[in-house]
Write a structure and sequence with these properties.
Strand content: under 5%
Distance between the termini: 40 Å
Shape: elongated
Structural class: mainly alpha
Number of helices: 10
Largest sheet: none
Helix content: over 70%
Number of strands: 0
Length: 206
């Protein structure tokens, strides 16, 4: 790929992967995902649909807030980051700034994705999780090659990278609903007590 894109554009893709938090979002879960898996399995075994809905909806709250805050910080700092910190070449400033905004937007679903992964783990769907990861990785790798062969530049590669990450999130949502038909994403299911319980368990797991 470096032969077709050139050293500069290939380097810009590398920088974008550093900005994209998806590759290391798991470092910020602090036992949260393990706790969610435990309670999911427990409530499912007891057939407590209401508690399971409260668990998932309450668990989505914090990751969504974290993702939204980081996205807004990224939006506000993006121009300074691109121009001053990363010292992007002048010819690529505008396009890379736009690409960075797209990447920062992905934070909205990268953190909530942890909740859905924990849910599927609690359902003992580890093979499904591995299958999704493997399939999307292969699609992404093939897509990178096709884009390079067709003459598309780094900007389109970054957009495709974010699109694959979003596809992975959508697949998690789809299979979560398929495995739990009664699951609903509604504000009325938010429970601060459930959130405190998850936090307490996460602290001890971590």
């Amino acid at each position: 790929m470096i032969g077709r894109l050139g050293a500069v554009e290939y380097g810009l893709i590398g920088i974008s992967k550093i900005i994209a938090i998806g590759g290391y979002v798991g470092l910020f879960e602090f036992g949260f995902q393990v706790s969610l898996s435990k309670y999911t399995a427990e409530f499912l075994q007891k057939k407590e649909e209401l508690k399971l809905n409260q668990l998932i909806n309450s668990s989505l709250f914090i990751p969504f807030i974290i993702g939204a805050i980081l996205m807004l910080v990224g939006f506000l700092c993006s121009r300074f980051l691109v121009q001053s910190v990363l010292s992007i070449p002048q010819a690529y400033l505008t396009s890379f700034h736009i690409a960075s905004l797209v990447i920062f937007s992905s934070y909205l679903f990268e953190f909530p994705k942890l909740v859905l992964m924990g849910l599927l783990e609690g359902l003992q769907k580890l093979s499904l999780l591995r299958g999704i990861e493997t399939a999307t990785f292969l699609i992404q790798s093939l897509g990178f090659v096709i884009l390079a062969v067709l003459g598309y530049g780094y900007f389109h590669v970054i957009l495709f990278m974010v699109a694959i990450s979003f596809l992975r999130f959508i697949l998690y949502v789809f299979f979560s609903f398929r495995k739990l038909p009664f699951l609903r994403f509604r504000l009325q299911y938010f429970s601060s007590d459930v959130l405190k319980e998850i936090g307490y368990m996460s602290k001890h797991v971590f």
